[in-house]
Target: Methyltransferase FkbM family
Amino acid sequence: MIKFLKRKVRQIKRKYNLIKLKLEGDKYKQWFGSKYGGFYVRQEILKKSGQVIVYSCGVGKDISFDKAIMRKYKKCEIYAFDPTPISVKWIEKKWLPKNFHFYPIGISDKNGTEKMYIPKTFDVSYGVFNWNNENKDEIMVEMKTIESIAEDHGHKFVDILKMDIEGSEFVVLNSIDFKKIEFGQILVEFHERFLENGHKVLEKTIAYLEKNDYECFAISDDFEYSFVNKRFKTTEVNK
Model:
């Protein structure tokens, strides 16, 4: 009962944030992926040619979002990242098309190796925060910044940045130099509940995105946020 009430309070707060952010363009949003692994996307700013680039950070055992994008945009290129051992093994057993590129590395605010805590639940992705006392297992993994990944692949623009990395999203998003890399949309599940003063960290992160011209246009029932690059809201770039 207590967990149910806490969830309801969280839902109310999120819905308040939805209004507070002065959301626009809801009529354009469309859901891609499963109920628990999907996000809202604004299709009208994606390229009609289908040559869409997606960075999918945090795979876990659910690539329904990536599959939905690949079905819709046949020429898209998915770059997926997750160093979680169970996720790596799960991906290795899957038959995936050539345009799905998987890398067993984590996303951080710096390049190098970093301690990672292994989640006990098999359907979640990695995290660098030991927010659950039961998460005792830890390993060292390779980490890269978004900018470094983009430079490695020669990308100056990425259509969609999708992020579900169990609390690390705050450090990563606040460290991105948007002068070096630009996104059409940023889709992220925030885990502020894992952090002390998490609501303040969330507000700071949203403010940083807004400062760099990314505006929230949708929040799902499970609190996945979707941001759109303001530059593309009134510009037809989907030719």
Observations:
- The helical segments are 2-20, 64-72, 85-92, 146-153, 169-175, 198-211.
